[in-house]
Amino acid sequence: MKAQKVEVLQGTLDLIVLKTLDTLGPLHGYGIARRIEQVSYELLSLNQGTLYPALLRLQQRGWIASQEGVSENNRRAKYYSVTRAGKKQLSAEAKNWRQITEIIARVMQPERGGIK
Amino acid sequence: MSRLREFLLRLLAVFRGSCLDRELDEELREHCEMLVEEYRHEGMSEMEARRAARIRLGGVEQIKEMHRDQRKLRFLEALGQDARYALRQIQRTPGFALLTVLTIALVIGMNAGIFSILNALAFQPIAVRSGERLLSVYPTFQGRGRDVSGSINMFSYSEYKVYRDENHVFSGLAGYVPFISAAVGGEHSSDATGTLATCNYFDVLNQRPTLGRVFVDSDCAVAGGNAVVVLSNDFWRGQRGADSEIVGKTISLNHTNFTVIGVAAPSFAGTEVASSVFWAPITMQAALMPGSAFLNNADLSWISVLGNPKPAMTMDEVRADLDVITSRLDAEHPGTMKVWVREAALVNRPEERGVILTVGAVLLTAVSLVLLIGCANIANFLLARGASRRREIAVRLALGASRGRLVRQLLTESGLLALIGGVLGVIVSVITFEPLVRLVIAHLPPGLPPMALRLSLDVRVLAYSLAVTLVTAIVFGLAPALRSSREDLNTGLKATSGGELDHPRHAGAFGNVLVSGQVAVCMTLLIAAGLLLRGLYEAQRIDPGFDRKGLTAVTFQLEQQGYSKAQANALHQRMKEMLWSLPGVDGLAETRIVPLSNVHWGTLAQVPGTGAQQPVSYNRVSPNFFAMMGIPIVRGRSFSVEDVMTGAQVVVVSEELARRFWPGTDPLGKSLSLLGELPQIVIGVAKDAQVDHLGESHPKFLYLPTDMKTEAASQFLIHSRLDDASTLREMREMISVLDPNLSFSAERLEDNLDAFRSLSRIVVVVSGALGGLALLLTLIGVYGLVSYAVSRRIREIGIRMALGANGQDVLGMILRQALLPVALGAVVGIAGCAAVSRILSSFLFGVSPLDPVTFAVLPVILLGIAALAGYVPGRRAARVDPMVALRYE
Fold this sequence. Notes:
The complex is a heterodimer of chains A (about 120) and B (about 900). Chain A is about 50% helix and about 15% strand. Chain A is an alpha+beta fold and about 120 residues long. Chain A has one domain (about 5-110): Arc Repressor Mutant, subunit A, CATH 1.10.10. Chain A has a two-stranded parallel ribbon. In chain A, helix 1 (about 15-25) packs across helix 4. Chain B has about 900 residues and is of the alpha+beta class. Chain B has 27 helices and 23 strands. The interface of A and B includes residues 47, 50, 61, 63 and 78 of A.
């Protein structure tokens, strides 16, 4: 049996997508989904289709842009890439995320100090 | 920013077609193919790979739904659906829709129209260069005496100059004095109303002349030094034939020659409600207002001030800066003066705004009340229809529609109706109000200067109309929507399309409340209209206590027009002789105030040695005044010629004054002291007459004899045996020949009465129209309620008749039940009107605000009409055939 899969935390999908596109450059939806699964060692449970509303939202906010392209296997596909506004947003959200995880980590391990 | 962008994109997507759907389809298909390929690589068969791919991708339809939700604004789309559905409903009941839309259009049209007048007067900023504002600056004084010309909330010249020179917030601060009346001399002598202005007035308002120049600073350098004038474009075209050589010519105003330096732009008529014909430098005050020197009086309120603030100056900064100057200015009486700043409109001073806003509010309230009656009708109809749509609503609830969703949908329907009505209403108001305002202005008392009112459909009027429309939609839509969506599924689904037997009383209760409210409001409006009508009727046949047949008043203000004392006396004497010589003239009296001219002279009077000073009104008249006016002297005697010649200290008092000052004793020979004069001896008592204001005789009125010193200030009252029209013409010609420069008026006394009537005529027409409309709408309401009740209770009526009730009983029952809410409403309406009718008293001319005739007759009429409205459907109920009714589905 596989290890227990984890649901995507509410609101973090945007961050994950932005980070992925930022690291790998332009990608189509399938590529993004694959990449997320690979990075999470297949532990993140993702209905790949749910990516699309998120991609639309990010486009509407001007953080990513899309353009037509051809995939490795000669298929027509829409390629998404991070815009400048998206990069700014990513760095802001990444900072925010680091703070949150730090706080959560401290809350979960109070005996090691931190919160007294 | 990104959120806004998202919102706008989603808003746009609502209007875009389905091409986005296709795009997504394609993207998902490609994605699926890639997954299939991946699984095939792993060694799956085509079938297995496809199945696995679909699982990885997730439910395509759900994804599409999510995508659509993200793409568009969900609520807006739902609104579109609701609107389409509402349109279908409206098409199904076109009669109702038409009635509703017309009612709303009519009343919102009136509302918007009245508001646009109010807006033009009190809210619309005076137009200057685009992007610039104009501020009105005015002072208020408290706890100190001050000389006043016009209103106390104005500046003196020295105060104005201090503010102008010492402020740091205005790029220009201009002062002006409107309503300067001047006699224009020359071939066609006439009266003109103009403005005294500081020499930066046109610059602050950013007005360029059509011809010549406007004022420069040097024009205001010396008091009385620069007799120059700028003419209005209308005057230049109308009176001077658009003479292109007019600059440099002279024009005589109140006997001083002014040099024309320019003509104002066509669109400019000054900064007040009445248009200005000319503008002269404020330093020419003494020339235009002879006999007064305002410039040097530091404690006289007479100048209105407008300022053009420097760019980016906030109101708070302006106020703070002016406050510093004020605190320095009123060092003598600290804290008694305060300066206010507001965005400049045509009407700025608080006392005038108060009057206008009150009148506007009363009118808008009356119109809104009619609107309310109309709304009640529509609500009642929607309620009835809601009952017949019970099954539809129950089904929708059963299928999972939330109540909120249903209410929203029902409200969309009423909102749509209201919106159509509102748009129509605004169009109606735009089309009708210009002519209407012109009509009203044409019926205003003669002698008022022309109005400079520009009605325009600006943001404020539109916003107001939209707000009224939305409130209307909610008022008539909300209650029915809430009621019909509160449906018990069980009974709702079982309900037949009509003739149910469940709680008829309960279901009708809300409708009854609506009708009561309608009747109450209608009653109030009707009684108000009735009172005004009675007032007008009384005014037609009122006996003012004096004779006016054959009387003509000739009025002129010699001293104010710049005549010297000697000139004035000579002219006065010549005029008197020539008027006497006209054929048919058999009487000529002199009086300081022409009766009913709406001019009042007041002073303080005191019985020597007793009590406090009391305000009294008075007039100075020649000895024959009483005889000619037909005012009987009930005790003692009138003035004699000797009284006038010797300047005797004598007085004739009115009966009412005698009763109040010397109750129960003979007033003859008693003495009375007037403020600043020697004690006067009472020589006669005159019958009360309404010489001040039609419809009320001033309770404390007295007459003094004309005296030699001020003789030239009196006006003439001439009695002629002949036809009034020809005498009038001859008088006018004769005086024009005598002195072409004199500005005067010769009017029949009868016409002075008309001034009082014309205003009340407008009020009567308006209130009558509103009352009639209210009555009509109420009638429809009662009729609708009763018909509906009859149609719902047809089975019950059938049972009653099967059990032995006859047609009379049924009719009686229906009428009783219909008239109960009507009677209740009428009582409330009568009480309400009795409480507020006092505000109408100045239009009532002697009719009491609680006039028993009006208060008795109109309720009877209303109840009669309501009974009739109930009788027609009631008869239908009485004719019900029990056999048919019991089978009625």
